[in-house]
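A.,

Following up on our hallway conversation. Structure tokens first:
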């Protein structure tokens, strides 16, 4: 946790993201009294890529070409 006055916060506004990553939490104070708290946003779950999705899928016992042919012949 790091504490910054409003004046310090304004001086470092361009790198607040770095400060939050380093400290984990920033308390902003005015005249020595805390008025705000900056916290990092929790990381979002990363979407699996195509290879991961394919690996998790159940394998088909019938080739896809045969399934497509059967569906087209049924029209």
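Then the amino acids I'd put at each of the 75 positions:
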């Amino acid at each position: 946790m790091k504490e910054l006055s409003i004046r310090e916060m304004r001086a470092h506004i361009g790198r607040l993201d770095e400060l939050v990553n380093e400290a984990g939490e920033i308390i902003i104070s005015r005249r020595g009294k805390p008025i705000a708290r900056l916290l990092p946003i929790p990381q979002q779950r990363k979407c699996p890529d195509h290879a991961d999705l394919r690996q998790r899928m159940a394998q088909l016992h019938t080739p896809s070409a045969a399934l497509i042919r059967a569906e087209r012949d049924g029209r």
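The first strand starts at residue 2 and ends at 5. Curious whether your intuition agrees with the design.

B.
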